[in-house]
Amino acid sequence: MTDSHDHPRVVEPPLWEQWAAKSAELPQGERLQKVLAVRGWGSRRVCEDMISANRVTVNGEIAVLGRRVDTEHDTVEVDGVPIGLKPGLVYYLLNKPEGVVTTAHDPQGRPTVVQLVPEEPRVYPVGRLDQGTEGLLLMTNDGDLAHRLAHPSHGVEKEYLAEVEGAPGQGAVRRLREGIELEDGMTAPAKVSQPSPGVLRITIHEGRNRQVRRMCEAIGHPVNRLVRVRIGPLRDAALAPGKWRELTQAEVNALVEAASEGGRPVA
Ligand code: URA
Predict the structure, then answer these.
(1) Confidence of residue 207 (pLDDT cuts 50, 70, 90)
(2) 135 and 205 part of one domain
(3) What's the domain range around 21?
(4) Are residues 66 and 151 in the same domain?
(5) pLDDT score recorded for residue 10
């Protein structure tokens, strides 16, 4: 086909297709179907179908397959419902004091973490801290997110400060970093530093029983005090022992991202 000046006419794809192709090339952001899937809106296939059925909007515009979104800045809705808002779900960050047990009910009558947060709606701890361990514990009624976070393949980092007996030498610290043989197998490499003699900052992404205590015992420096100071993106140095607060929406989003990174493909 030619125009009146005999130049070949360039047939451009519709604007929205050009725009979709551009946004799919953006290096930042996640594909929309993945964002929906990790937030529990169904398998990726189901989420793709929802997008194709024009049920999903980004910043008020109907989204197309392949669109990338930045959940920090974009507003994503399914049938007009913001994807971050799942009705009835609550997320608490608790600073667990020493001596409190991480169970819903303790037959021995010891104080439990559920007694430190509101009774309704009922929430459950994600993972556990030993009775003697202090620090950050996530509690929620979002079973889907709890399940993802608890799955070792998702590798959400947990950071601890451990006051140990003596001051580990470089060789001992290296053993912790490289992985150490415990009775249930080798530990994955850990990030380890010694901010002051006898205090280890240890970051692991496994969640084995009494793991940090057993790692330190294995290098000959048993733990005297253990505090969890970070769960994935969550930190709060200002939260006093025994206190809790709700996560912000940005923290929930960051947690959802952390739980999907490095994990098994969702569905
Ligand atoms: N590692 C431990 O040894 N105890 C905890 O409570 C958490 C991690």
Answers:
(1) confident
(2) yes
(3) 15-82
(4) no
(5) 60
